[in-house]
Amino acid sequence: MKKPLKETDKLYKKKHLKISTFILVVILMFGVGLFIYSYRSLSQAMQDERADAVNQIGGLVTEKVAVLRDTNVSEVKQKALLLENAHVSTKAEASRMMTDPENFLLVTESGAFRTMDGRSVVVGDTQLMANITSGEGVQSSFATIQTKGDFWLFSIKMSGVNLDGEPIIGLVKRVDAQTYADIAAIPIYDGAGASYVVDKNGVVLMHPSKVTYSDAFQGYNFINILKKENIKQSDIDALSTAMQDGKEAQAVITMNDNRWLIKVMPLETGRSLVLTVPITVTAKTTLSRMQNTIVGIGVVAVTATLLFAVWMTYMVRRSQAVELEQAKARAKSDFMDKMSHDIRTPLNAIVGMNELALESMDDQKVVTDCLEKAKASSTYLISIINDVLDMSRIESGKMTVAQKPFSMEDVLDTVERIETGPAKEKKLELTVTAKTPIDTDFVGDSLRIQQCLMNLLSNAIKFTPEGGRVRLTYWSGPFNDGRKQVVFTVEDTGIGMSEDFLERIFTPFEQAQASQTSGQAGSGLGLSIVRSLTELMGGEISVESTVGKGSVFTIRLPLKTAPRSGPVAQGPRSVALPEGIVGRRILLVEDHPINRQVIRRLLEKMGMVVDEAENGEVAVEKFAASRPGDYAMIIMDIKMPVMDGLTATRNIRAMDRDDTAAIPIVALSANAYAEDADKSTEAGMQAHLAKPIEIEEMRKALATYIKPV
Fold first, then answer.
1. Structure confidence by residue, pLDDT tens digits, 627-666
2. How far apart (Å, rounded) are the C-alpha atoms in residues 395 and 505?
3. What element of type H or E holds 277?
4. pTM for this model (two decimals)
5. What single-letter DSSP state applies at residue 275?
6. How far from the centroid of its chain's Cα atoms is residue 354's Cα?
7. Dihedral (C-alpha) 220, 226, 229, 233: value to the nearest 10 degrees?
8. Which of 139, 208, 389, 553 has its CA 20 to 30 A from that of 155?
């Protein structure tokens, strides 16, 4: 049955009223929020504007004081040196040597102060004689000279000066204190603000004569003035400490219905410059902008209803953009946390093995073992850093896995070496077992496999309580197409996971609840990486877990086999070169001195003679000054100051010499992408070696590109 028209109209009006009320409330909230935001932003802008300006003014004042001081210090030094070496015997002769003798005082051996014409004066500075007799260069102080006034004194010790039969041990120049005050104690902002000179205790020593709003700071002690105005104790303490320690400090206070910016800056020893600026009075430009903003808010409030639909669309899009940015920020933060975890694991092994090697220098076997383990850890660390650099390729789906022969024993041994340290720290039993014989090499990406196992073992160790057990097991069996199915299981007796969490365990950035993780931190990215890498290699990963009992992760990979490459190498690899290459001269171009030292020693260890250049320009000059055939190879860093490696290579290749086209130039760079190698080749280089340097790669480059003689 239809409702009566009037009743329908009432319902419509009620609904319309609700919508209108909602719109008005939204507009009001928006207007209030915009006003508050604008007010706070502009208020902060006023403070920042004044702070920047005060810093500039304070810097200019302190610079002028420093220039005045340095000028007088230099003059006193010169005059003292002149008197010591001029061999004058009377005060009259000494006076004629001074451009302004009335401003200089002579200090006698008895401690008396005399003018250049011989009159005695009384100086009210008990420390002045001590400054002179200390002989520590030119000392400055402030003192009152009886009947003359207040002066800034510059004193220096002299020797070998005797005037009118009286030994003279020091020279003092007096500078009228008003000269100092005219620079340091000045009105600023047309008298609205001012700068004062205070001592360590806040006593006002100098203040400007013409100020208006700064009358509030007229008093004997600056700190006491602030205390009487009930300023926050933390602000008072900060300013007082800065005066005591000769450092900078800044505070914003409210006094006499004005907001004041107070800035303390150090001057002479024991003195500070205090600048006071009323922000609300001086920030006229910002206040004008605030008034315009308030008017703008009123306009927005009037027209907002008509533009409601547009506004709603904008807010929705803005909200979506904010959520997207927040999601990106969270993803970035979580990713960096994970990278920190993955990088610190091998880094811990490197540091630990180096510490152990340093403590076992008398046991060559232990040292060799530690260095081998540190080397294995550094190799894995490099792979992690490469992952970070390749992140854009991962996100764009351009990541690929290598297909190279590798030894499974090497993979398992490296993983065990790196994870043994963290396991021992938690008093865990870590075992690595091969259930089936490893009678062949495999074709695949050994570093990616190693990365997956490291992630799983690191998580297992992290979430297994002390005294527990972590086990890595390998076995393989037939698959198809001549491939084998390689299976890894990582089993622990840790805290386990709930069924609910198992459903989302491989989702990026997911973690179990804090009650389960027992406060253990983690990014939740590692297992997602393991699954992605496993799938890229054509395999799969699964997990079984029980809360309180532990977890078992299983990775299955179909891998092709390859003939065994021979037994696993023990100890350092040989760096021997053919006799026709040993002893040849290399030009090493590297800007970093430590890197240059390391590479030089590696080359000399192989029997090469090394010349060094710290940048491309020096390398070009050394090559141009050499005779054809002096250098058998140039090893060239890419990024260097003055001249980079690519430019240096082009300049060398362009020289009008018979050997410029033939001499091998090998690039040395921390950039290891294919496009970087292409740039090196285009510049005229034969090869591109990536940092950190692999000894074997360097040896191969020498053997490949240097012609034996």
1. 998 999 999 999 999 999 999 999 999 999 988 999 999 9
2. 20
3. strand 271-278
4. 0.39
5. E
6. 26
7. -150
8. 208
